Amino acid sequence: MISEPGCKFCQIVARAVPSAIVFEDDASLAFLDHRPLFPGHVLFIPKDHFETLADLPRPSMAPFFGNVQRLASAVERGMKAEGSFVSINNRVSQSVPHLHVHIVPRKKGDGLRGFFWPRQKYASEDEMRRAQAAIAAALE
């Protein structure tokens, strides 16, 4: 296992810090967030220490996100939720610098509205096209 000294999530993987584990396989672990948005809020992590999604090796992507899909469904069923919110922060707002996916059970009228960011339109069609071109160029 790739571990980072001082990383709280690596310590959870090593069982040095207690957590309410809901899922585990050879490569990943899911546990209840200790400060949930709603009961059943799960954090899903790779056992190896990777800081961001970009750091996760490509061969790990399919099994990792297959488990995210499984967990999102299980959280919805287990918590009798109408849906779920699934998110990843990369560096900004990432309270623990270890890749983790938030899986939050949702119900209509639960009060969770725009809690991450205010949405806005592009100032112009030209601004939208510049953003489109910059991202497409970065993919090349």
List the helices and strands and how they pair.
Elements: H1 8-13, E1 21-24, E2 28-32, E3 42-46, H2 58-78, E4 83-88, E5 101-106, H3 125-139
Task: Describe the sheet with the most strands.
Answer: 5 strands, antiparallel
State the total count of DSSP E strands: 5
- CATH class wording: Alpha Beta
Can you tell me the residue ranges where pLDDT is under 50 for at least 5 consecutive residues?
none
Class of secondary structure makeup: alpha+beta
If classified by CATH, what would the architecture be?
A: 2-Layer Sandwich
Structure report:
- It is a single chain.
- Helix content is 30%, strand content 19%.
- It has one domain: HIT family, subunit A.
- It is α+β, with helices and mostly antiparallel strands.
- The mean pLDDT is 90.
